[in-house]
Amino acid sequence: MTDTFTVTAVVGNPKRLSRTLTTAEALAAAVAGPGAPTASTDLAELYLDGIEPPHDGFDHALARLRAADVVVVGTPVYKASFTGLLKLFLDQLPPGALDGAVAVPVTIAASAEHRFLADLQLRPVLAELGASLPVPSLTLRENELPELDAHLAKWTGAHLPALRAGAAA
């Protein structure tokens, strides 16, 4: 088993440079390991500039996904679901786009009632695209973000070995 993995984050928050992006990138860095490079795609930049995919940005994002061992998929909770922006991107991926990748859904919600969104709605879509999902989703409430490092340490402490084993398989 290698010590590092190719990790990329995809974030479907319509706000550029969002807290969701920060969270997903931090988790990607923790999974990849110290000093290992990671990549991320902020779908707000990819889609909201008035360019309709497929285009070079979409193709670049797809290439990153296909090259990744681990894909961190982040979304805020909007109207009790993941964002339409993320749905648009996932719907445009070809069948099997995540074959061979391990995926980790990340959701950020305003209330505790939405803590199961990643498991009920996002995980089945990622599995349909071919991803394996061997570890629980990272679900945070907005009021937990000031302690992001502590939450990431707790999550990675509990799940990183299984995640790495899944990515190595």
CATH architecture: 3-Layer(aba) Sandwich
Q: What CATH first level would be assigned? A: Alpha Beta
Q: Which sequence of SSEs, written as H and E, runs from N to C?
A: EHEHHEHEHEH
Q: Percentage of helical residues?
A: 40-55%
Structural class: alpha/beta
**Strands side by side in the biggest sheet:** 2-1-3-4-5
Low-confidence region ranges? none
CATH topology: Rossmann fold
The end-to-end span amounts to 9 Å
How many structural domains does the protein architecture include? 1
User: Overall pLDDT, averaged?
Assistant: 89
CATH superfamily: Flavodoxin domain
Number of helices: 6
Largest sheet: 5 strands, parallel
- What's the alpha carbon Rg, rounded to whole Å? 15 Å
Residue fraction in strands: 15-25%
| Overall morphology | globular
Compute the number of strand runs.
Answer: 5
What would you note in describing this structure?
With about 170 residues, this protein is an alpha/beta fold. The chain has one domain: 3-Layer(aba) Sandwich (Rossmann fold), CATH 3.40.50.360. It is about 45% helix and about 15% strand. It contains six helices and five strands. It has helices spanning about 20-30, 45, 55-65, 85-90, 115-130, 150-169; strands at about 5-10, 40, 70-75, 100-110, 140. It has a five-stranded parallel β-sheet, with helices on both faces. Helix 1 crosses helix 6.
Summarize it.
This protein has six helices and five strands, in the order βαβααβαβαβα. It is α/β, with parallel strands linked by helices.
Compile the SSE list and pairings.
Elements: E1 7-11, H1 19-32, E2 38-42, H2 43-47, H3 56-67, E3 70-76, H4 84-92, E4 102-109, H5 117-128, E5 138-141, H6 148-168
Helix pairs in contact: 1-6
